[in-house]
Specification:
The protein is an alpha/beta fold. It folds into three domains: about 80 residues, Double Stranded RNA Binding Domain (2-Layer Sandwich); about 45 residues, no CATH class; about 300 residues, tm_1862 like domain (pyruvate-formate lyase- activating enzyme), CATH 3.80.30. It has 16 helices and 18 strands.
Length: about 475
């Protein structure tokens, strides 16, 4: 049957209809699903009464009635999930979960329980996770706990810093980030750096005064599109406000091998950067060409070895599974190439088809792995990284519009990235600088307050004083 229209009576949960649409789309990704106000024209109807609700699929499917308990929203999604499983024969491994942070649910459940052994049972029965995903979520959360609960050496709350460089050599096929081709923006990118350093100069000392600093992450885009001198000026600007040796961990996202030189790596080493990312996404040349990467597989290997030669030992490598025209044989080739290099971390992404990407605009032109293929590919990657490369999963998150309803996982051989865990679990405040940067301030109740910078680079430059004032207000209103 075609499932394209959902009818749902009004509830106190304004976002429940959209959550139900997202859940239906997991089972039927080929359809564009929308709400209808006419029950007789719906493919699925959910009707909520005072003490019960029922779900009906199609005209020939029997109604599914339940009494309402204390958690109506979860209960409706569970009931809808069960009906969709019956109808489709497919069981999504993450059950009814739609948020990007499954491990936050683990921590929430754990805080209400005395027995940790009950957590998988709750995830499986109340949220419909598969046993494998329930155990994975618990394993990752347990790994993270040791690092996320480490107390500050002072009485000040912990915070980390994100600095965004929104430039790349080219825009990849799957990318939706607010990144800009460095050649196109040669004239304005120096103005951008002036604005960014101005924001750092005004706000970073205030952050340092109020918080104990944990991690510094320079991301993008691709920060190594900057010249060696520009990288040094940026690091010096940060160092003016916060001595770089105050940070427990410093990462610079050096994702594109075609932007990395020995001179730049020596600058990073000089200023104490312990960790970088060199992100091949695939070790198959035909895939690199297809997705818009202007470098070779050999360049990836050469750059990796150069970084090790310069003395940077902690190197993460990102891989995307489900890239166009790739199948299990391509993935096997990629992971065997990674094994030869032995990076300290590997982050495995499931391809997400993002709305503003070139892939989304021309999706019909590409061959993508189906759901069963993705399951086999992901299982292969887990087994390879854990058993062949002796790594452990240390953080995970999910995205909307994945090729299949799976996950992204970071693996480590021993020293995990603090910033990755902090940003996913929202365990500390993250003060973010640059165009498109989103500051997330964790208050005393554990709630997140957001301060957003504008995404457009030119507008950011023009409105830099406004971006600074937005953050300054927080410190004015939250004096110690």
């Amino acid at each position: 049957m075609q499932i394209k229209k959902l009818y749902i009576t009004k509830t106190k949960f304004n976002n429940l209809p959209q959550e139900c649409i997202v859940l239906i789309h997991v089972f039927y990704p080929e359809y564009s699903i929308e709400l209808t106000s006419k029950e007789d024209r719906s493919d699925i109807s959910i009707e909520i009464n005072d003490d019960s609700f029922y779900i009906q699929l199609g005209k020939k499917c029997s109604s599914y009635r339940r009494q309402i308990d204390n958690d109506l929203r979860r209960q409706i999604k569970v009931a809808l999930f069960e009906r969709l499983v019956d109808q489709s024969g497919y069981y999504p491994p993450w059950g009814i979960l739609q948020g990007i942070r499954p491990t936050k649910l683990v921590f929430k459940i754990k805080n209400t329980l005395s027995e940790k052994s009950s957590i998988p049972h709750i995830l499986i029965n109340d949220y419909k996770l598969s046993p494998k995903m329930a155990n994975l979520a618990l394993e990752v959360a347990s790994y993270e706990e040791e690092f996320l609960q480490a107390p500050s050496a002072s009485n000040r709350p912990l915070a980390s810093i994100y600095v965004g460089i929104p430039y790349c050599p080219t825009r990849c096929l799957y990318c939706s980030f607010p990144s800009n081709g460095i050649e196109k923006y040669q004239q304005t990118h120096q103005e951008y750096m002036k604005a960014l350093i101005k924001e750092l100069d005004h706000i970073l000392p205030l952050v340092h005064k109020k918080h104990a600093l944990s991690a510094l992450y320079v991301g993008g885009g691709t920060p190594t599109t900057l010249s060696a001198n520009e990288l040094e000026n940026l690091l010096l600007a940060i160092h003016r406000s916060v001595p770089l040796d105050n940070f427990q961990e410093i990462t610079v996202e050096a994702g594109r091998p075609d932007t990395i030189t020995e001179e730049k790596l020596k600058v990073l080493k000089k200023y104490g950067i312990q960790r970088i990312s060199i992100n091949p996404q695939s070790m198959n040349q035909e895939t690199l060409d297809l997705i818009g990467r202007k470098h070779s597989v050999d360049a990836i290997k050469d750059t990796f070895n150069l970084a090790r030669k310069v003395g940077i030992q902690r190197i993460n490598m990102d891989i995307i599974l489900g890239l166009p025209n790739e199948h299990i044989s391509h993935v096997e080739h990629t992971f065997k190439a990674l094994e030869e290099l032995m990076p300290s971390e590997v982050t495995v992404h499931t391809l997400a088809i993002k709305n503003s990407s070139r892939l989304k605009e021309n999706q019909e032109a590409y061959s993508l792995a189906n759901r069963d293929e993705m399951e086999n590919i992901l299982e292969y990657s887990r087994e390879f990284l854990i058993h062949r490369m002796d790594m452990k999963p240390y953080y995970l998150y999910r995205q909307k519009n994945m090729v299949a309803s799976y996950e992204n996982i970071g693996y480590t051989s021993g020293q995990p990235c603090l910033y990755n865990m902090q940003i996913i679990e929202e365990a500390t405040s993250i003060f973010a600088f640059g165009a498109g940067a989103s500051t997330k301030i964790r208050n005393q109740k554990g709630q997140i307050e957001r301060v957003e910078n504008v995404k457009n680079v030119d507008i950011y430059i023009d409105r830099i004083d406004e971006m600074i004032e937005r953050k300054r207000i927080y410190f004015t209103e939250n004096k110690e």
